[in-house]
Amino acid sequence: MSFEVFEKLEAKVQQAIDTITLLQMEIEELKEKNIALTQEVQVASGNHESLLRENQQLKEEQLVWQDRLRTLLGKMEEV
Prior knowledge:
By secondary structure, this protein is mainly alpha-helical. It has one domain (about 1-79). Helix content is about 95%, strand content about 0%. It has one helix at about 1-79. The protein is rod-shaped, with a radius of gyration of 34 Å. This is Cell division protein ZapB. Belongs to the ZapB family. InterPro entries: Cell_div_ZapB. Keywords: Cell cycle, Cell division, Coiled coil, Cytoplasm, Septation.
C-alpha cells in the first residue's frame, strides 16, 4: 500500500518538475521576445525623433517660402 502512495507521489513530483521545466523554457522565450521588442521600441523612438526634427525643418522651410511668396506678391501688386 505505501509503495503505491510512494509511486503516486513520485509521479506528482515528476509532473511538477516537468511543469517547472516547461515554464522555465517559456520564461526564457518571453525574455528573448521582451529584449527584441525593447530594441524595436528604441528604433521606433529614434525614428520618431528623426521624423519630428524633419517635420520641424520642413515647417520652417515652408514659412520661409510663404514669406518669399508674400514678398513677391506684394511687389507684383506694386507694379
